[in-house]
Here is the input.
Amino acid sequence: MRLQRSPEPPPLARINVTPIIDVALVLVIILLVTAPMMSTSDLPVELPGAHARDLERPDFISVTVARDGRLAVDETAAAGIGDVPALVRGRLAAGRDRNRLVVVRADAALPHAVVRRLLEAAREGGARNLGLATAQIADGRP
Amino acid sequence: MNLRFGRRAPGEGPLAEINTTPLIDVSLVLVVILLLATPLTFESSFGVRKGDALAQPALVADRQDRVELTITGERQVEVNGRAVAVDQLAGALRPLLRPGSPREIAVACGDQVSHGAFVRVLDIARQNGAQTISVAGD
Here is the structure.
Protein backbone atom coordinates (compact mmCIF):
# COMPACT_ATOMS: atom_id res chain seq x y z
CA MET A 1 0.00 0.00 0.00
CA ARG A 2 1.35 3.40 -0.87
CA LEU A 3 0.77 6.28 1.42
CA GLN A 4 -0.11 9.44 -0.38
CA ARG A 5 0.84 12.77 1.30
CA SER A 6 -1.76 15.47 1.22
CA PRO A 7 -0.63 18.42 -0.83
CA GLU A 8 1.10 21.30 1.11
CA PRO A 9 -1.02 24.45 1.43
CA PRO A 10 0.28 27.27 -0.71
CA PRO A 11 2.54 29.81 1.06
CA LEU A 12 0.87 32.94 2.46
CA ALA A 13 1.69 35.46 -0.21
CA ARG A 14 -0.32 38.45 1.04
CA ILE A 15 0.09 40.37 4.27
CA ASN A 16 -3.03 40.35 6.38
CA VAL A 17 -3.94 44.04 6.67
CA THR A 18 -7.17 43.55 8.62
CA PRO A 19 -5.67 44.20 12.10
CA ILE A 20 -3.94 47.39 11.05
CA ILE A 21 -7.15 48.70 9.47
CA ASP A 22 -9.07 47.82 12.66
CA VAL A 23 -6.59 49.67 14.84
CA ALA A 24 -6.46 52.66 12.53
CA LEU A 25 -10.24 53.01 12.46
CA VAL A 26 -10.49 52.76 16.25
CA LEU A 27 -7.77 55.41 16.59
CA VAL A 28 -9.59 57.74 14.22
CA ILE A 29 -12.85 57.38 16.16
CA ILE A 30 -11.17 57.87 19.54
CA LEU A 31 -9.28 60.91 18.34
CA LEU A 32 -12.45 62.43 16.89
CA VAL A 33 -14.24 61.95 20.20
CA THR A 34 -11.43 63.16 22.46
CA ALA A 35 -10.14 66.02 20.31
CA PRO A 36 -12.21 68.70 22.11
CA MET A 37 -11.05 67.41 25.51
CA MET A 38 -7.41 67.41 24.49
CA SER A 39 -7.48 71.10 23.62
CA THR A 40 -6.95 72.12 27.23
CA SER A 41 -3.56 73.41 28.26
CA ASP A 42 -1.10 71.09 29.97
CA LEU A 43 -0.09 73.69 32.54
CA PRO A 44 0.19 72.06 35.98
CA VAL A 45 -3.07 72.83 37.78
CA GLU A 46 -4.40 71.26 40.93
CA LEU A 47 -8.13 71.78 40.56
CA PRO A 48 -10.30 72.17 43.64
CA GLY A 49 -12.27 69.03 44.44
CA ALA A 50 -16.07 68.93 44.36
CA HIS A 51 -18.74 66.29 44.81
CA ALA A 52 -21.48 67.90 42.75
CA ARG A 53 -21.40 67.52 38.98
CA ASP A 54 -22.89 70.28 36.94
CA LEU A 55 -21.75 71.04 33.41
CA GLU A 56 -20.64 68.07 31.35
CA ARG A 57 -20.31 69.56 27.91
CA PRO A 58 -17.33 68.16 26.04
CA ASP A 59 -16.95 71.19 23.82
CA PHE A 60 -15.74 74.17 25.81
CA ILE A 61 -13.09 76.85 25.79
CA SER A 62 -10.71 76.53 28.72
CA VAL A 63 -8.93 79.37 30.45
CA THR A 64 -6.19 77.78 32.55
CA VAL A 65 -4.17 79.49 35.27
CA ALA A 66 -1.42 77.61 37.07
CA ARG A 67 -0.27 78.19 40.63
CA ASP A 68 2.70 80.21 39.39
CA GLY A 69 0.37 82.49 37.42
CA ARG A 70 1.05 81.14 33.93
CA LEU A 71 -2.02 81.50 31.74
CA ALA A 72 -3.39 79.74 28.69
CA VAL A 73 -6.58 79.89 26.65
CA ASP A 74 -7.12 76.38 25.37
CA GLU A 75 -3.57 75.38 24.42
CA THR A 76 -2.41 78.92 23.59
CA ALA A 77 -0.25 80.62 26.22
CA ALA A 78 -1.32 84.12 27.27
CA ALA A 79 1.16 86.70 28.52
CA GLY A 80 -1.29 88.13 31.04
CA ILE A 81 -4.94 88.53 31.95
CA GLY A 82 -5.09 91.44 29.49
CA ASP A 83 -4.66 88.97 26.61
CA VAL A 84 -7.51 86.72 27.70
CA PRO A 85 -10.49 88.68 26.27
CA ALA A 86 -9.02 88.77 22.75
CA LEU A 87 -8.11 85.08 22.85
CA VAL A 88 -11.57 84.09 24.10
CA ARG A 89 -13.19 86.33 21.47
CA GLY A 90 -11.12 84.66 18.75
CA ARG A 91 -12.08 81.18 19.92
CA LEU A 92 -15.77 82.08 20.10
CA ALA A 93 -15.66 83.60 16.63
CA ALA A 94 -13.90 80.54 15.21
CA GLY A 95 -16.54 78.12 16.50
CA ARG A 96 -20.09 77.71 15.31
CA ASP A 97 -21.67 78.23 18.72
CA ARG A 98 -21.42 81.74 20.14
CA ASN A 99 -22.80 80.43 23.44
CA ARG A 100 -19.96 77.99 24.00
CA LEU A 101 -19.11 77.33 27.60
CA VAL A 102 -15.94 79.03 28.84
CA VAL A 103 -14.44 77.17 31.78
CA VAL A 104 -11.88 78.75 34.10
CA ARG A 105 -9.44 76.07 35.27
CA ALA A 106 -7.70 77.63 38.24
CA ASP A 107 -5.38 76.10 40.79
CA ALA A 108 -7.02 75.61 44.19
CA ALA A 109 -4.27 77.55 45.96
CA LEU A 110 -4.73 80.75 43.97
CA PRO A 111 -6.48 83.69 45.63
CA HIS A 112 -10.08 84.23 44.57
CA ALA A 113 -9.26 87.68 43.20
CA VAL A 114 -7.36 86.07 40.30
CA VAL A 115 -10.30 83.83 39.41
CA ARG A 116 -12.73 86.73 39.57
CA ARG A 117 -10.55 88.79 37.23
CA LEU A 118 -10.43 85.85 34.81
CA LEU A 119 -14.21 85.48 34.88
CA GLU A 120 -14.49 89.18 34.09
CA ALA A 121 -11.92 88.86 31.29
CA ALA A 122 -13.84 85.94 29.77
CA ARG A 123 -17.08 87.88 29.90
CA GLU A 124 -15.30 90.85 28.34
CA GLY A 125 -14.28 88.50 25.52
CA GLY A 126 -17.93 87.69 24.82
CA ALA A 127 -18.45 84.58 26.94
CA ARG A 128 -22.09 84.12 27.89
CA ASN A 129 -21.77 80.80 29.69
CA LEU A 130 -19.12 80.59 32.37
CA GLY A 131 -17.97 77.68 34.48
CA LEU A 132 -15.37 76.86 37.10
CA ALA A 133 -13.50 73.59 36.61
CA THR A 134 -13.39 71.13 39.49
CA ALA A 135 -11.82 67.75 40.06
CA GLN A 136 -14.48 65.14 40.66
CA ILE A 137 -14.37 63.62 44.11
CA ALA A 138 -15.40 59.98 44.10
CA ASP A 139 -18.65 58.98 45.84
CA GLY A 140 -20.16 62.31 44.79
CA ARG A 141 -23.78 62.75 44.02
CA PRO A 142 -24.55 62.30 40.31
CA MET B 1 -14.12 23.03 -16.89
CA ASN B 2 -14.27 21.90 -13.30
CA LEU B 3 -16.15 24.31 -11.03
CA ARG B 4 -16.44 23.77 -7.29
CA PHE B 5 -18.83 25.79 -5.20
CA GLY B 6 -18.59 25.86 -1.41
CA ARG B 7 -16.38 22.85 -1.15
CA ARG B 8 -12.98 22.71 0.43
CA ALA B 9 -9.97 21.34 -1.33
CA PRO B 10 -8.99 17.88 -0.21
CA GLY B 11 -6.71 18.01 2.86
CA GLU B 12 -7.86 21.47 3.88
CA GLY B 13 -9.42 21.17 7.32
CA PRO B 14 -12.18 23.34 8.70
CA LEU B 15 -11.19 26.64 10.36
CA ALA B 16 -11.21 25.53 13.99
CA GLU B 17 -9.71 28.57 15.79
CA ILE B 18 -11.09 32.08 15.87
CA ASN B 19 -8.42 34.63 15.02
CA THR B 20 -8.29 36.83 18.12
CA THR B 21 -5.39 39.01 16.99
CA PRO B 22 -7.51 41.94 15.73
CA LEU B 23 -9.61 41.86 18.89
CA ILE B 24 -6.52 42.01 21.08
CA ASP B 25 -5.03 44.82 18.97
CA VAL B 26 -8.15 46.94 19.27
CA SER B 27 -8.48 46.23 22.99
CA LEU B 28 -4.88 47.28 23.68
CA VAL B 29 -5.30 50.51 21.75
CA LEU B 30 -8.49 51.25 23.68
CA VAL B 31 -6.74 50.62 26.99
CA VAL B 32 -3.88 52.98 26.10
CA ILE B 33 -6.23 55.73 24.94
CA LEU B 34 -8.42 55.41 28.03
CA LEU B 35 -5.37 55.57 30.29
CA LEU B 36 -4.33 58.80 28.61
CA ALA B 37 -7.80 60.35 28.69
CA THR B 38 -8.72 59.34 32.25
CA PRO B 39 -7.45 62.49 34.02
CA LEU B 40 -9.59 64.66 31.75
CA THR B 41 -12.77 62.68 32.27
CA PHE B 42 -12.67 63.32 36.00
CA GLU B 43 -12.97 67.04 35.47
CA SER B 44 -16.30 68.70 35.91
CA SER B 45 -17.33 72.30 36.29
CA PHE B 46 -19.82 74.53 38.05
CA GLY B 47 -21.84 76.90 35.95
CA VAL B 48 -21.62 80.41 37.39
CA ARG B 49 -23.27 83.66 36.49
CA LYS B 50 -21.25 86.77 36.79
CA GLY B 51 -23.42 88.74 39.14
CA ASP B 52 -23.37 92.33 40.33
CA ALA B 53 -22.00 93.62 43.56
CA LEU B 54 -24.16 92.57 46.46
CA ALA B 55 -24.60 96.13 47.64
CA GLN B 56 -25.97 97.39 44.35
CA PRO B 57 -29.29 99.10 45.15
CA ALA B 58 -30.91 98.40 41.75
CA LEU B 59 -31.17 94.75 42.62
CA VAL B 60 -32.92 95.11 45.96
CA ALA B 61 -36.16 93.60 44.65
CA ASP B 62 -34.35 90.66 43.10
CA ARG B 63 -32.28 90.11 46.18
CA GLN B 64 -35.15 89.49 48.53
CA ASP B 65 -35.47 85.80 47.75
CA ARG B 66 -31.96 84.83 46.96
CA VAL B 67 -29.45 83.65 49.50
CA GLU B 68 -26.39 85.80 49.94
CA LEU B 69 -23.18 84.09 50.89
CA THR B 70 -20.09 86.04 51.81
CA ILE B 71 -16.91 84.01 52.20
CA THR B 72 -14.85 85.90 54.73
CA GLY B 73 -12.15 83.32 55.43
CA GLU B 74 -10.92 79.84 54.55
CA ARG B 75 -13.50 78.27 56.86
CA GLN B 76 -15.80 81.18 57.64
CA VAL B 77 -18.92 82.17 55.74
CA GLU B 78 -21.77 84.59 56.27
CA VAL B 79 -25.23 83.44 55.21
CA ASN B 80 -27.49 86.47 54.73
CA GLY B 81 -25.19 88.37 57.07
CA ARG B 82 -25.03 85.70 59.79
CA ALA B 83 -21.62 84.16 60.46
CA VAL B 84 -21.50 80.39 60.00
CA ALA B 85 -18.58 77.98 60.02
CA VAL B 86 -18.11 76.03 56.77
CA ASP B 87 -18.81 72.80 58.64
CA GLN B 88 -22.28 74.06 59.58
CA LEU B 89 -23.02 75.61 56.20
CA ALA B 90 -25.04 72.67 54.85
CA GLY B 91 -27.43 72.84 57.79
CA ALA B 92 -27.79 76.59 57.44
CA LEU B 93 -28.50 76.45 53.70
CA ARG B 94 -30.89 73.54 53.55
CA PRO B 95 -33.98 75.39 54.87
CA LEU B 96 -33.18 78.42 52.71
CA LEU B 97 -32.85 76.37 49.50
CA ARG B 98 -35.86 74.13 50.01
CA PRO B 99 -38.02 73.21 46.99
CA GLY B 100 -40.29 76.08 46.02
CA SER B 101 -37.76 78.75 46.83
CA PRO B 102 -35.83 80.41 43.97
CA ARG B 103 -32.79 78.32 44.91
CA GLU B 104 -30.51 81.10 43.86
CA ILE B 105 -27.39 82.15 45.70
CA ALA B 106 -25.14 85.15 45.23
CA VAL B 107 -21.61 84.58 46.42
CA ALA B 108 -19.12 87.25 47.36
CA CYS B 109 -15.65 86.19 48.32
CA GLY B 110 -12.71 87.95 49.92
CA ASP B 111 -9.82 88.61 47.57
CA GLN B 112 -7.32 86.59 49.56
CA VAL B 113 -9.55 83.57 50.19
CA SER B 114 -8.23 80.63 48.20
CA HIS B 115 -10.04 79.39 45.12
CA GLY B 116 -10.24 75.98 46.79
CA ALA B 117 -12.22 77.41 49.74
CA PHE B 118 -14.48 79.28 47.32
CA VAL B 119 -15.27 76.12 45.33
CA ARG B 120 -15.82 74.16 48.57
CA VAL B 121 -18.61 76.59 49.50
CA LEU B 122 -20.13 76.40 46.01
CA ASP B 123 -20.04 72.62 46.23
CA ILE B 124 -21.87 72.60 49.58
CA ALA B 125 -24.46 75.02 48.19
CA ARG B 126 -24.96 72.95 45.06
CA GLN B 127 -25.33 69.74 47.04
CA ASN B 128 -27.96 71.37 49.22
CA GLY B 129 -30.19 72.60 46.44
CA ALA B 130 -28.68 75.75 44.91
CA GLN B 131 -29.47 75.87 41.21
CA THR B 132 -28.22 79.28 40.16
CA ILE B 133 -24.94 80.62 41.44
CA SER B 134 -24.01 84.24 40.84
CA VAL B 135 -20.52 85.38 41.64
CA ALA B 136 -20.51 88.96 42.86
CA GLY B 137 -18.23 91.36 41.03
CA ASP B 138 -16.13 94.12 42.48
